[in-house]
Amino acid sequence: VSRLLVSPLGGVLRRRHERYLLGLARAFDRSDFDSALRQAIALGGGAASAGLTVRLPRPRLGALGPSPTLPGATPSLATPLNAYAYLRELYEQAASHLEHLDRIDEAAFVRADLMGAPLDAVRLLERHGRRVLAAELADGRLLDPALVVRLWWQAGRRDRAIDVARVRGGLDGAARQLDDVDPEAALLLRRQWVQQLLVAGAVVTAVRIAWPFPPLREVVLPH
After folding, report:
1. Is 76 helix (H, G, I), strand (E, B) or coil?
2. Which is nearest to 94 in space by CA: 137, 40, 18, 46?
3. Per-residue pLDDT tens for 42-68?
4. Which of 15, 63, 101, 153 has its Cα between 20 and 30 A from that of 223?
């Protein structure tokens, strides 16, 4: 690709890419988000994470929302680095505007898929009560286990919260996150944790976790 870009054909390709970027910027400027988001370049992972390409991106089809799985590296257009900084600014403005318009899935798509900031997308989804989608995104993108456990617990998927904790940990951190916002949920999560430890035969650890919380002492005391 590099040799092609310095050939006579390279100038044609660069102009083609510049026209594409200009059209994309204009679509964002006039708030034509459906067209702009379907054509937009994903910036997450670094502009050169999968090399350069001379092909323009294909339009996305279907509903636009954050991908719950970690996207693979995508090749970047042969454009100056300042174009990426400009697009990132456009995406930031678009995400804020879409959130203001209550187009939450699309705003989360911009932050998670286009900007490569899934944690920001999770926080956005939480702000708007989209707990299941927030949990799916955090889980699929392998964010902090404590965050994933907390989100699944608050979404009512306690089975999934415990499964994640068994594999990746995070129960203690999740309970601490809940302490300030929902102490009752934090206590229930710790109770579940203590019961799991007892089933696994980790009695000493179960007692250590339960004892600072009087309502949990009965779980570990002999009956």
Report:
1. strand
2. 40
3. 886 443 444 444 566 678 888 899 998
4. 153
Distance CA 98, CA 107 (A): 5
**What's the CA angle centered on 81, arms 9 and 91, to 5 degrees?**
115
d(CA 9, CA 54): 11
Instruction: Point out which residues pair with 52 in neighbouring strands.
Output: 76
The pair phi, psi for residue 195, each rounded to 5°, is -65, -40
Bridge partner residues of 77 (DSSP)? 53
150, 127 Cβ separation under 8 angstroms:
no
pTM of the model: 0.81
Q: Contact 84/43 with Cβ under 8 angstroms?
A: yes
- Residue among 18, 19, 13 nearest 1 (CA): 13
Cα angle for residues 96, 80, 9 (degrees, 5° grid): 130
